[in-house]
Amino acid sequence: MNLWKNFNQGIIRENPVLRLMIGLCPVLAVSNNATNALGMSIAVAFVLICSNCVVALIRKVTPGEIRIPIFIIIISTFVTMCDYVMHAYAPELYQALGVFVPLIVVNCIILGRAEAFAYKNPILNAFLDGAGMSLGFLLALVSIGVVREVLGAGSVFGVPLFEERIAATIMILPPGAFITIGCIMALLNRMEKKVL
User: Fold this and answer.
1) Which of 19, 85, 152, 170 is most enclosed, with most CB atoms within 10 A?
2) Does residue 196 carry a pLDDT above 70?
């Protein structure tokens, strides 16, 4: 049951974007279309899961006084790997995401989970926490990306949905991300009240 809770908490109850409101910089910048949102979500998932596992593995031998610099070195190693792979195998996505891939190093979701969870728990729990948080981030980011792309460009994953171009340009700009996040949060809150 505890393992399920470790996985499940990041999906809705402690969703990093829609509940904790952390890691919003890449959310605002790259969720202007579903493809970018999916690419960033996969990159964050790789870094979060891998860094959580390594932090959990070395937690008993990591001196408390220097744990944050060690976490940053671990995280930056996985970000660099992700950056190079994306640059080599997905150059268009790499160009679209730009500086936001290297900025994963300082994303408070990643560092926060390393400090608050992985450093205090065994590897399986840390892996499940990273997977759950990653899934929550992916669901939030892709949902925001789909809504913004449909309303802002009339397409989804680059596929046009309408014969005539229908666009609310504000939706593909950063204010569109705030509007979309607010609407999704309101919808989640309403659904929770109905359940309770």
Assistant:
1) 152
2) no
